[in-house]
Amino acid sequence: MTDFRPDLASFNVPTLVIYGTADKTVPIDATGRESAKAIEGARLIEYDGSAHRLFATDKERLIKDVSEFLTANVTSGSEQRSAIPMPQLVRPAWTSVSRS
Nearest-CA neighbor of 61 among 72, 50, 52, 71? Predict the structure, then answer.
């Protein structure tokens, strides 16, 4: 497993962290909340009582929250778009397991 926590401080784009409070696979306290704290200006959305697979259990809400975040953080117009970094959607990388 690789620990990418030191990299989080270098994020310089709008960042959205979405996490279920009942995630027992990758607990929110050690990962989601810590990621949001480590990334300056990050927005954390907690899904109260939701577990690990938000895309399956909270699909409509997840789509709505991501769409609203992207809409709020990406402007239209090609001149402006090139100057604005794309928002980041993050899953705490230190929870990933290498498959080598």
Answer: 50
